[in-house]
Write a structure and sequence with these properties.
The protein is of the alpha/beta class and 724 residues long. It is built from 24 helices and 23 strands. The protein folds into 4 domains: 271 residues, Spore Coat Polysaccharide Biosynthesis Protein SpsA, Chain A, CATH 3.90.550.10; 137 residues, no CATH class; 94 residues, Rossmann fold; 167 residues, no CATH class.
C-alpha cells in the first residue's frame, strides 16, 4: 500500500500552489535514483508556473529518496510503495490521483528547461486531436537526441537488438525508425515518442486507457502511443519545448543484464499483443490447439506402448506365452494409434469445451475413451492370430495410456497457465454495455487474471453509464471494424436492455469473423449445466433437462456413499486414534466437536469434525491441511446426513440468507467434498458464485460429476491445500 504525503498550501511556493483546477500534473517514478530525482525536482521547482502539481511515486528505493524529497522538496506529493511494482503501474498510480487537465510523465534523468512546460500545455491546447506529445530532448552536451520514432518493423528489431546494428549504423531501416532524416526543428505528427517525456491529455484516456501494466519496464510508451493512434487520436513531437535527457540505453549496454531481460520480455509482450503472427494464431487457436493435443496424445500413446512392452518383457519368465519382438507389433501399434485418437475425438477430448477442464475431467474422459478403445484392441487380438499379440501387454498399454495422456495434458495445461500468468497469450476482450452489469463483468475479469483475458474496454450502446474506470473503445455500430484493428478475440454482451435486432445485426455483420461472442443472459439465475439450445415447433429454444439427482441416481449414490465411507472409516481410524491419544495426553479436551449444519430438505443435524483449537499442534495442522480433519464426517455419511460429494454444508445463519432458487441445494445431501470452496461476500453470507454452483450441482448431478468433485478435493488434500 502506498503512503502519500499531502502538503498544505502554506508549505508550497507560489509557482506550485495547490489548486482545485490545475493545468498540469507532473508524474515521475523513482527507483534507486535519488540524485537524478534531486536534479529533476529542482528543475521543476525552478521552472513550473502556477497551476502545476508534482507527484513522485517511489518504488521502494530504500536509498534515501523519500527523506530527500521531504527535506528539500516538501511541495511534492510523495507516494512510497512497499515494493517495486513496475514503471507502468506506478505511473498509473500517479495518473489516477492527479488533478491536472494534462499529465506529464517524466523520467528521473530529465531536466526541465525554462518555458518547456508552458510550451507543451499551449501546444496541447491548440491541437485538440493530440492524445500524447513529447518534447524535443537534448543530450547532456546539447546535441539532439532522436526521441521521436516510427513503429518497429522486423528489420528494425534485427538492427536494434543484434550486432548487425553496429555493423550497419546507417542502414535505411534504422534511419527510418529513428527518423534521422527528419528536421527536428519543426513539430509534427509521429508514430511514438520516448517515455522519458510524454504529455497526455486526460480526456483522451477515456478512449486510450492508462498504461498497460503488463509492461513492467520498457515498451509501455510504444504501446500507449500505438493505442492512441488505434483510438483515433494523434501523437506529436513538439520542437518548441526542449528538455535535457541523460539517455543511456542501459538495457543495451550490458549483455546479459536484468534490464536487457526486462526489455526482451516487454518486447515479447508487445508482439504477443499486437503482432500479426500472434493474432493469426489466436484466430486459429481452435485448430492449432486440436492439432497440438493430437500430437501430445500420440506421444503419450506410443510412450505407453514402449513402457508396456518393457514391463511385459521383464515378466517373460513368469508368463507362459512367449514374447515376440517389438517389430511384430508394428501393425498393431499403428491400428492402436488410429483407434485411440478416434475414440478420444468421439468422447470430446478435442472439443473446445475441454479447454478449461482440469485433471479430474481429463482423467474421466480419457478413461472412458480408452475403455472403449481397449475393447476394440482386445477384439483385434482375437481377429488376428491369438498367439501373436499379448493381451497382458494390451491391457497394461491401455492403463498406461490413460495415465500418460492425463499427465501430459495436465503438464501442457500447467505450462499454458504459467504463460498466461506472465500475461502472455491473453484473449483480448471487449464488453458491450456501460451499465452496472458491464461494470460487474469488468471487475470480475480484473480480479481473475488467471482466466487469461485482456480487457480492451467497453462498447457504448447508449444505455446507462456506470463508474467503469476503463476506456470506451467504440459504439456497437463501429465494433465490427474494430475487431481486427484492436486484435479482439472475444465480445461479451452485458447490456440487458439491448434489443435482439441490434444483437442479431452485429452477429450477421461478423458471421465470417473468428471472434467468439458471449452473452450475459437474463436467465443466468435459472440456467443449468444441462441447458441446451434445440428446435421446438420450428423455433430455436433453450431446453432444460430435469435429470435431478433425487430420481434414479439417488439410490446408487447412496450405495456408493455407504461402501466408500465404510472403507474410509477403516483407513482413517488410525489417524483419529492417534489424534485422540494426543488430545487425551495433553488434556485439551475431546478430539471431536459437533457443529450445527443445515442438511437435506432444510433439516438440521450435528456435523462431526476434529475440534479446532487456538494453538493447534503440528499433528492437528497436518491433519487439517490434508483433509483428515474431515474423517469424523464419515459418521454423518453413514447416518445418511451427508454424502461424500455434494454442496458445502451451511450453517443456519448462511442458510437463512438464501433465496428460493439457491435453496435448491437442499434437495441434495451436503458433501465432505464440495464443487466449490467457501467464497463468502461477507461473514455469515454465501457468495453468488457458490449459490449458483450449488444450484447447478443439484440440477445437473451425475456420477461423473461426483467423481470430478471428489478427485479435485483429493488433489487439494494431497497438496496440503484442503479447504475443509
Amino acid at each position: 500500500m502506498a503512503r502519500v504525503a499531502s502538503p498544505h498550501d502554506e508549505d508550497l511556493p507560489q509557482n506550485v500552489r495547490s489548486d482545485d483546477a490545475l493545468d498540469l500534473s507532473v508524474v515521475t517514478v523513482g527507483y534507486r535514483s535519488r540524485e537524478a530525482l534531486r536534479g529533476l525536482l529542482t528543475s521543476i521547482g525552478d521552472t513550473a508556473g502556477p497551476g502545476v502539481e508534482t507527484l513522485l511515486i517511489d518504488n521502494a528505493s530504500h536509498d534515501g529518496t523519500a527523506e530527500m524529497v521531504r527535506a528539500d522538496h516538501p511541495w511534492v506529493r510523495l507516494y512510497e510503495n512497499g515494493a517495486n511494482v513496475g514503471y507502468s503501474r506506478a505511473v498509473n498510480q500517479g495518473i489516477r490521483d492527479s488533478r491536472g487537465r494534462y499529465v506529464l510523465v517524466l523520467n528521473p534523468d530529465v531536466r526541465v528547461t525554462p518555458g518547456a512546460l508552458g510550451e507543451l500545455v499551449r501546444f496541447m491546447d491548440r491541437h485538440r486531436d493530440a492524445a500524447i506529445a513529447g518534447a524535443k530532448l537534448l543530450n547532456e552536451d546539447g546535441t539532439l537526441q532522436e526521441s521521436c520514432r516510427r513503429f518497429y518493423t522486423f528489420w528494425t528489431l534485427i538492427l536494434r537488438r543484434t550486432f548487425l546494428g553496429r555493423l550497419f549504423p546507417n542502414a535505411r531501416a534504422l534511419r527510418s525508425y529513428l527518423m534521422a532524416d527528419f528536421d527536428h526543428s519543426h513539430s509534427r505528427e509521429v508514430d511514438w515518442v520516448l517515455g522519458a517525456c510524454m504529455m497526455v491529455r486526460k480526456e483522451a484516456l477515456d478512449d486510450v486507457g492508462l498504461m498497460d501494466e503488463r509492461f513492467f519496464l520498457y515498451f509501455e510508451d510504444v504501446d500507449w502511443c500505438y493505442r492512441a493512434w488505434k483510438s483515433g487520436w494523434k501523437v506529436y513531437y513538439v520542437a518548441e519545448a526542449t528538455m535535457e535527457h541523460a539517455y543511456a540505453r542501459e538495457s543495451a549496454r550490458k549483455m546479459p543484464s536484468r534490464l536487457l531481460l526486462a526489455h526482451v520480455v516487454s518486447l515479447f509482450h508487445f508482439y504477443d499483443k499486437w503482432g500479426k503472427v500472434a493474432y493469426w494464431m489466436r484466430k486459429n487457436r481452435t485448430a492449432l490447439r486440436r492439432g497440438g493435443l493430437i500430437l501430445s496424445d500420440l506421444v503419450s500413446i506410443n510412450g505407453a506402448f514402449a513402457l508396456a512392452y518393457l514391463l511385459r518383457s521383464s515378466l517373460r519368465g513368469l508368463l507362459a506365452k512367449p514374447m515376440f519382438g517389438a517389430g511384430v507389433y508394428g501393425p498393431f501399434l499403428i491400428f492402436a494409434n488410429i483407434v485411440l485418437v478416434f475414440t478420444f475425438a468421439l468422447f470430446g477430448l478435442y472439443d473446445r469445451k475441454t479447454e478449461r477442464e482440469d485433471g479430474p475431467d481429463i482423467l474421466l474422459r480419457s478413461t472412458k475413451a480408452t475403455a472403449v478403445a481397449a475393447v476394440m484392441l482386445m477384439a483385434s487380438t482375437y481377429l488376428a492370430s491369438q498367439t501373436l499379440y499379448s493381451r497382458v501387454l494390451v491391457g497394461v498399454f491401455c492403463v498406461l495410456t490413460v495415465a500418460l495422456v492425463t499427465l501430459l495434458r495436465m503438464g501442457l495445461r500447467g505450462v499454458h497457465r504459467a504463460v498466461q500468468a506472465g500475461s502472455f497469450d491473453l484473449r483480448r476482450v471487449v464488453i458491450v454495455g456501460t451499465g452496472p452489469e458491464a461494470e460487474r463483468m469488468a471487475a470480475r475479469i480484473a480480479r481473475h487474471a488467471e482466466t487469461g483475458y485482456d480487457l480492451v474496454g467497453v462498447v457504448d450502446t447508449g444505455g446507462p453509464r456506470a463508474a467503469l474506470g476503463m476506456p470506451v473503445v467504440s459504439t456497437l455500430d463501429g465494433l465490427p471494424e474494430l475487431l481486427d484493428e484492436q486484435r479482439i478475440g472475444e465480445v461479451v454482451f452485458a447490456d440487458p436492455d439491448l434489443s435482439n435486432d441490434r444483437i442479431a445485426d452485429f452477429l450477421m455483420r461478423t458471421r465470417k469473423s473468428p471472434v467468439d461472442v458471449k452473452m450475459l443472459s437474463g436467465f443466468s439465475e435459472v440456467l443449468t449445466l444441462s441447458a441446451r439450445v434445440e428446435e421446438f415447433l420450428d423455433l430455436p429454444i433453450v431446453s432444460f433437462e430435469r435429470e435431478a439427482m433425487m430420481r434414479t441416481g439417488a439410490g446408487l449414490k447412496r450405495l456408493i456413499d455407504i461402501v466408500c465411507a465404510t472403507l474410509l472409516v477403516i483407513l482413517w481410524s488410525p489417524a483419529l486414534a492417534v489424534t485422540g491419544l494426543v488430545t487425551g495426553v495433553t488434556g485439551r479436551g475431546a478430539p471431536i466437536s459437533k457443529q450445527e449444519r443445515v442438511g437435506r430438505d432444510g433439516a438440521t443435524f450435528s456435523m462431526y469434525r476434529l475440534r479446532e483449537t487456538q494453538r493447534p499442534s503440528a499433528l492437528r495442522r497436518f491433519l487439517t491441511r490434508h483433509g483428515l480433519s474431515s474423517a469424523p464426517m464419515l459418521l454423518n455419511v453413514l447416518k445418511g446426513e451427508m454424502s461424500l460429494a455434494g454442496p458445502r454444508p451451511l450453517s443456519r445463519e448462511e442458510a437463512s440468507g438464501l433465496d428460493a432458487g439457491a435453496s435448491l441445494r437442499f434437495d441434495a445431501r451436503p458433501g465432505i467434498a464440495s464443487p466449490i470452496t467457501r467464497v463468502a461476500d461477507e461473514e455469515g453470507s454465501v457468495s453468488r458464485a457458490e449459490r449458483e454452483i450449488g444450484m447447478y450441482y443439484v440440477q445437473s448431478w451425475s456420477l461423473g460429476a461426483d467423481v470430478r468433485v471428489a478427485l479435485r478435493w483429493m488433489g487439494r488434500c494431497i497438496a496440503g491445500r484442503c479447504g475443509q
